[in-house]
Amino acid sequence: MEKLLPAFLYEHKECPLPGIGTLMLMSGEAKLLTAEQKILAPIPYVELSPKETSPYLLIEKIASIKQISHQHAADLLRAFCDSLQQLPAFGEQLLGTAGSFYMDEKGRLHFKSSAMPAAFFPPVEARRVIRTDVAHEMLVGDTYTDTNAMTERLAEQPERGYRWWIAAVVLGVISLAFIAAYFLQPHHGIGSDFSMQPAATHKTYTR
Fold it and tell me: Is the dihedral of CA 113, 120, 61, 56 positive or negative?
């Protein structure tokens, strides 16, 4: 069983274990290494699911390989699953190249997947390509636009801000010139001829 079950698992992506659950061959996830410009290939791993599936195809496989009846094949599979459930705490049972079953201190059965050889899953080169001659659709808020329109819009914003800044400076200089001219006139400016006359007083005599 240690060799037959992994072979069935790799072929069908799952291996039923009556009374235990199902071994599932998971695809894994690819990883992007931006700094190294590489993509690591997804490495498969094996996971034990509590969900039970039909063992019919597996029993047929066992009967065909061992040249025995379906009932005898079913009995062999059941006996193997019973032996797994009877593992002592921290006991372990290898399952070929797929990994191993082990029992924890609380009597729960787990599966530890073996690391797949990295040589079978080489990384691939991943270089970022930006095509400036192709417009791609994009959603900005509630409006659909494309990359060319957004590039032009972003390029115009600094230029408009620069023009408003120049206009504000020019208006400020003109305002200062008018104010200065107004106060420098003879009758308004500081230092213009202006004298204060004392108020007239009346003498009073008392005897």
Answer: positive
In the predicted model, residues of the chain with pLDDT beneath 50 are 189, 191-195, 205-207
**Residues near 53 by beta carbon (within 8 Å), at least 6 away in sequence:** 14, 16, 22
The answer to whether residues 35 and 75 belong to one domain is: yes
Q: What is the pTM of this model?
A: 0.56
Q: Is 133 exposed, middle or buried (0-12, 13-18, 19+ CB in 10 A)?
A: exposed
Q: Which residues contact 139 (CB under 8 A, 6 or more apart)?
A: 145
Find the domain containing 102 and state its range. Answer: 4-125
Domain count, the chain: 2
Phi and psi dihedrals of 32, rounded to 5? -95, 125
Tokens of 56: 């019919």
CA angle 129, 130, 134 (to 5 degrees): 125
Each residue of 70-99: pLDDT tens digit? Answer: 999 999 999 999 999 999 999 999 998 889
Q: Characterise 191 by phi-psi region: left (phi > 0), alpha (psi -120 to 50), beta (else).
A: left
47 lies in some domain: yes
Q: Judge if 73 and 150 occupy the same domain.
A: no
Radius of gyration of the chain (CA): 44
